[in-house]
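We close this part of the discussion by returning to an individual protein. The sequence in question and its structure tokens are set out directly beneath this paragraph:
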Amino acid sequence: MSNAETEPHPNAQPQEPQEPQAPYVEVLSARDVPLGGPRAMTVRRTLPHSSRRLIGAWCFVDHYGPDDVALTGGMDVAPHPHTGLQTVSWLFTGEIEHRDSLGVHALVRPGELNLMTSGHGICHSEVSTPATTVLHGVQLWVVLPDEHRDTARDFHHHVPEPVTLDGGEARVFLGTLAGHTSPVPTFTPLLGAELTLDPHATVTLTVDPTFEHGILVDRGEVRLAGTALHQGDLGYLAPGPTSLTVTNTADTPARLVLLGGTPFEEQIIMWWNFIGRSGEEIVQARNDWEKGARFGEVHGYDGGRLAAPELPSIPLKARGRVR
């Protein structure tokens, strides 16, 4: 919107100073989605959402658990492909065994970051370990910018140190927050952190005003910039504020995942496990996976790989960050 008036309200009387308004918080609610495959587990997905596809370059937020593995069977996701993105695994409880076609065999544990870069193509499997009794965490994706989307496969593991806050604690797994910077490189400016808030504590964090931010409530009831967020909600804030204020309104500790980044302005197509820029690209990635080309092999997984679903009958179109 543009204001064309050069001298608006020339006769207006002086106004009393106004209190600054709290930033608007858009509340994104979750939907239940089966994770995929014959032994699928159900996750709560808040991104992509019906009103918003991206927060920075964060394009996918799955939240699961706490699940009693004796009842649910835990996680068993057979080898499957990715293109044009990074996967970010972060656990609260439990343990997951990761294997990929780069040859990495690693464990995902609570408070430890595992970041896998697909680039032109990678495949991996994810299985909760026999020692896991309760599985609880988030699975996140980051879209790669056009100039880096065909980059080489890569994998990073990082254990962030806890950072003490006035009223809580932070673990910064990507980007910079509260004076702590993660050493894990990213292809766009990003922020990712786990926050814990003491009962009835209010925490104010200095943030980059060029970032848009999202706060996912894993546990508890909080207020973000005065807006109530319940367990499973993702609160979105547009760029502009230089600080974020979060209040735990409960008698028990709250746990949150804070995500942020500069707005990602490229148009993308997300279909199944692929991110591309054209429908033809997605079709080619699917064909390559079905033919056993391009993505390599996962060694050590007990079972077959996931088959790609059928493509939709209508052409796939690239879309922007907001629906």
